[in-house]
Design goal:
Layout lengths: L7 H10 L3 H6 L3 E6 L10 E4 L16 E6 H8 L3 H19 L4 H6 L4
Helix pairs in contact: 1-4, 3-4
């Protein structure tokens, strides 16, 4: 959908790189991937799956990494093909899912004006 000049995966990496270094280094046991489409029947742009940092206790060991999935086509359907708009939407979705990794709920994001 996007033009050949727009690198979606690089935009995801750039959004991650935009985090302050101390916040980036606080992320633990999490993988960020790009998938083409959200699960059938779902209207999400991204998805966090795992155990938020705030809920990990002493028994948290030898577990698979949390997973943040960023969905390319749903984001492109929302943002269109304009590179600036796509970059902005990708940035928003990546930071939103990272917030879940840190234990921040959708409700709290709404309260903070970040949803």
């Amino acid at each position: 959908m996007t033009g050949a000049g727009f690198d979606f995966e690089q935009a995801v990496r750039d959004a991650l790189e935009s985090l302050p270094p101390d916040l980036r280094s606080a992320m633990s046991n999490v993988e960020i991937v790009v998938d083409e489409e959200a699960p059938p029947g779902s209207n999400v742009l991204g998805l966090y799956q795992g155990i938020p940092l705030t809920r990990r206790g002493t028994g948290y060991a030898a577990v698979p990494p949390d997973k943040i999935t960023i969905y390319r086509w749903p984001i492109e359907r929302v943002a269109g093909t304009d590179p600036a708009r796509l970059t902005q939407e990708i940035h928003h979705v990546v930071l939103h899912e990272i917030a879940h990794h840190f234990g921040i709920s959708d409700e709290r994001l709404v309260e903070m004006g970040k949803y």
